User: Fold this.
Amino acid sequence: MLGFAAAVLVLTGCSEAPQQPAAVDAAPTSASASPTEEELPPLGPPDFPVPDEARTQDEAGAEAFLRYYIELINRQQAVPDGQPLRDLGPDCRECHVIAQRFDDAAAAGYKLEGGQLSITSDLGTKASPNEAEIAFIARAEAAAAYGMTGTPIAGLQYPAQEALSSGLGVVWSPTDESWLVSKLTIG
Assistant:
């Protein structure tokens, strides 16, 4: 669950997230025009695909992708299933850690409650045509795991976490016609 994922990332000291929002230093080019819906290959879970606005090769697309990815994390912890996080962050170590936590919870038969992540600040985005880094402040709701009988799992309860200095790095994938996560830091 994200509470688990946020706690793991905070405790393991994740990758280099920008501590302060960065200024935008590159304007989108005319090559960043949004493809039409018919042109876009399917991406993301079939019932929760990456939206078109998150698939434009510009700053607005990168920011929309961040919001989608946060929603995807929240959605997948309720399933729990980590594969969609891996699919959209194939080279993101932190994304794989979160995905594995979700898969471990599913394998153990745990029910995950709480832990939703939200963005609580303006975004600080530094973008170029093929990559972007987005700094933000996040909040993770209190989280807990329960066994198959509904009993809380010892050691798997986490309090809410406020003001988590966070960041997301994305790279443009011409094959997928979308941004993909290259790094993620929560806290």
